[in-house]
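Entry:
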Amino acid sequence: MLHKKKTGHRGRRNNYWAESKRTNRNLFDPYAYAAEYAYFEKYYDELNSSNEIVIKNEKTHEKFLMPVSTNDIETAINSLPSEFFTGLKGVILLSGSNKQFKVSRGNLFCFGMYYAHCIFLFPYPRDQLVVSSQSLPAPHIQREYERAGAIYSRKDTRWVRKFSKKSLKAYYLKDVFVHELGHHVDRHKERSDEKSEIYADWFATEYGFKRIRGNHEQSITISTIRDRPKAPG
């Protein structure tokens, strides 16, 4: 988790092959740089003058796949209570870069980030849609991948983890986007990095995964929100 006092809290949905969902702040972070550059150099005026949530979809780098579209984001926004989005300036679907690709197998890889009252979603590396290894990951990491829609299968002497475009899209919409929205909803609370991540994870579970029953979305109203389990403190 990163912080920047001038522009607000940064929350990030990290990769699950890292030892922790929290990030270590390195001198070189192409994901944080991309979000900052997009905010200040590309969309600053529009983000800070529009009365509506600005949604941008950049042309995706050839080495990446952006599994969601602007229409998907609009649908996701309309499916959740409007008060969750009060003060949200924009949702930016970033393009990816060679520098991001170089670090995409390490613990700098990032699915999404909340920064300066905006949600930034990063594309997924194409070469990691199907990955093989000699052994399964630790059980908690395997569960996270499977929650994201990945399927593990045995092929000869190796284990294969496979994402379909459909499962990856569902993961971005049900988990990554809602996780970052949780950081926005939680932005005024004085929490430690760890507690902030716990809250965003809870929010994604309650308003992302638990909202889905099979292939049918469960409608959310103010009354159903009041009946939800209490958020972590």
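The longest strand covers residues 8-14.
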